[in-house]
Design a protein that fits this description.
Largest sheet: 5 strands, parallel
Strand content: 5-15%
Number of helices: 22
Radius of gyration: 33 Å
Distance between the termini: 117 Å
Helix content: 25-40%
């Protein structure tokens, strides 16, 4: 037996051409795969590499249940007749949503008829495209049914709806506990919450389609002036607040970009920005001549959003645009006489380095990992920064105050790392009172120290900046370290916690979420419009009568969390004064 095995081994080693055998096997394998491609209903790749897909199972109305116990490839999922939309679970619903489990793979009966090669290729290409997208079946969000009160409010003319909202805010009930809002950050969290909910229910904005690119409808999403571009982008994409019917609108948006206006019209080194304001004046005059809405209120229900330093100066040539229109401006300087506190909105100036990832690097370190007392680095322009460097540059190890961050320093620790390692971040004004460092400090959880006289902090109409920032007068720069060290540790810990909590209100999300920066800016514009409205008893009588007829005299029910009483008081029977600055004037 042993000699027989040796003989077979000799024959295999010397009488068989292994190269020829390998070529023959390769040819046979290729031919076999081609035949299977033309004959089988599925390509072989789908057998060996099935893309995994999870599909939720449903219990149907007739009680039969589709049992799903394994992962399923996209091709196999096509064999099932799945419900195209997920049921909405409610108390009176006969459709029950069952826990998501994997699916048992069951192949449908395949016709023995052989498909043509072109049809098979098209099918394979379609399957490949589905594989690339990695489709996952998700049930749609449940639909909410409007209440009778909401339907009634939507039926009101815009002016009456605004009167209703103003009356609601005047009689707001106290908010004691809200998981989404941190009360310490707000002047009055109850007023803010009620106003925000009314905005979500009532507000409709009409966007003028007039105006050519790039000055209009072309958002600039990168750099220190990106706030105006992000608001324009998200506003024009929005479906909740935007209306195509101007007769239903409560506000009218002029979608221009001050940054794009400067790029398109300003002559470098001319030091003449009057052509920019003339261009905007002519555009507003065209709007007023073409549509009846501007002349109806002389522009008081119109608004613009501009973050460029020259934003306030582009409205000077049009008197109604300057005095009446709600202006959301980064350059919120009271000394110029253009920004009007109580009517205009202080817009946060945000630096966006990567428009595809606007939230990159957001977050910071805990207090124990912040060894630096105060930090600043930046170019030397304006009246404040040279004074800051004069007193604190290279004077104190705790005070890291620089001009442009030196290379010898940045090689060891970057600008962002400095902010994340500092307890206080100094935010002095530049050429104008606004600074992107304020929001940067909030992004990196560093308590901002604002040095800019006559500056209105962003969203100051609702946010209490004393809770999470330090405001230092320009004359007190020599005493800056003394001021910061005078803050007790316990107080600092509270402020730093508040910075973390307020952070979500300053984030540009590619898809806006509740209480983020897009909604906060829009709310401030809405709130400003409400503040312009004067309420009299006769003006609210038709609305109150309609509410009694729709909902009942004893109680007008609830719209989310607010309560309207027939006597105009809150739920405790107490009237609360809500006097705005404009009302008092």
């Amino acid at each position: 037996m042993k000699r027989l095995l040796q003989l077979v081994a000799v024959v295999l080693m010397y009488r068989i051409s292994w190269k020829k055998l390998f070529v023959v096997v390769a040819i046979m394998t290729t031919v076999g795969m081609v035949l299977q491609t033309h004959t089988l209903p599925y390509p072989m790749a789908t057998w060996f590499l099935p893309p995994q897909t999870m599909v939720s199972s449903y219990k149907s109305l007739n009680g039969s249940t589709v049992h799903l116990t394994e992962t399923l490839s996209l091709e196999s999922a096509e064999q099932f007749q799945l419900v195209p939309t997920a049921p909405v679970v409610s108390l009176n619903s006969s459709t029950e949503l069952v826990k998501s489990v994997p699916i048992v793979e069951e192949r449908a009966q395949v016709s023995p008829r052989r498909n043509s090669s072109s049809r098979t290729r098209r099918k394979n290409a379609k399957i490949d495209k589905m594989n690339e997208k990695k489709v996952v079946f998700h049930p749609p969000p449940p639909r909410t049914v409007p209440t009778r009160l909401q339907r009634y409010i939507w039926s009101l003319p815009p002016d009456e709806a605004l009167l209703f909202a103003k009356r609601e805010i005047q009689n707001v009930s106290t908010v004691t506990d809200d998981p989404e809002l941190y009360a310490s950050l707000f002047h009055n969290v109850s007023v803010f919450k009620r106003s925000y909910e009314l905005m979500e229910t009532i507000l409709k904005v009409y966007i003028y389609r007039d105006g050519a690119r790039p000055i209009f409808h072309a958002p600039h999403l990168k750099g220190i002036y990106a706030s105006e571009g992000w608001f324009m982008k998200l506003m024009e994409e929005n479906r909740q607040f935007v209306t195509r019917d101007p007769k239903k609108a409560h506000l009218f948006y002029l979608p221009y970009s001050a940054r794009q206006l400067e790029t398109a019209l300003y002559v470098p080194n001319s030091h003449n920005i009057r052509p920019l304001s003339i261009f905007l004046r002519d555009h507003v005059n065209m709007i007023a001549a073409k549509y009846p809405f501007w002349n109806r209120t002389h522009g008081s229900d119109h608004f613009l959003v501009a973050c460029h330093d020259w934003g306030p100066y582009t409205v000077n040539e049009h008197q109604e645009l300057s005095r009446n229109t709600i202006k959301a401006l980064c350059n919120a300087d009271l000394s110029e006489g253009i920004f009007v506190a109580g009517k205009d909105v202080s817009l946060p100036e945000t630096t966006i380095r990567n428009p595809r990832r606007p939230l990159r690097n957001v977050g910071g370190r805990r207090v124990s990992q912040r060894p630096i007392l105060a930090f600043f680095a930046g170019n030397m322009h304006g009246r404040v920064r040279p004074t800051l460097l004069k007193y604190w540059s290279d004077k104190d190890e705790d005070m890291r105050i620089y001009g442009p961050l030196p290379n010898r320093i940045s090689r060891k620790m970057s600008y962002i790392q400095h902010m994340k390692s500092s307890r206080f971040c100094i935010c002095p004004m530049g050429y104008e009172v606004n600074s992107p460092r304020i929001v940067e400090a909030i992004y990196y959880e560093c308590v901002p120290v604002i040095i800019a006289d006559n500056f209105v902090p962003p969203l100051n109409d609702v946010l209490d900046w004393a809770a999470f920032s330090v405001i230092v007068a320009e004359r007190d720069i020599p005493k800056l370290k003394e001021i910061l060290l005078a803050i007790p540790l316990r107080r600092y810990l509270v402020m730093q916690t508040n910075v973390k909590m307020v952070q979500k209100h300053f984030l540009w999300n590619p898809k806006p979420i509740r209480y983020d920066l897009f909604h906060m800016v829009l709310h401030s514009i809405w709130f400003s419009r409400l503040n312009q409205i004067q309420i009299s008893v006769n003006a609210t009588a038709p609305v109150a009568l309609g509410l009694r007829m729709i909902i009942g005299k004893s109680s007008c029910s609830k719209l989310k969390t607010g309560i309207i009483s027939s006597d105009g008081s809150n739920g405790d029977g107490q009237n609360e004064d809500f006097t705005t600055q404009e009302d008092s004037v």
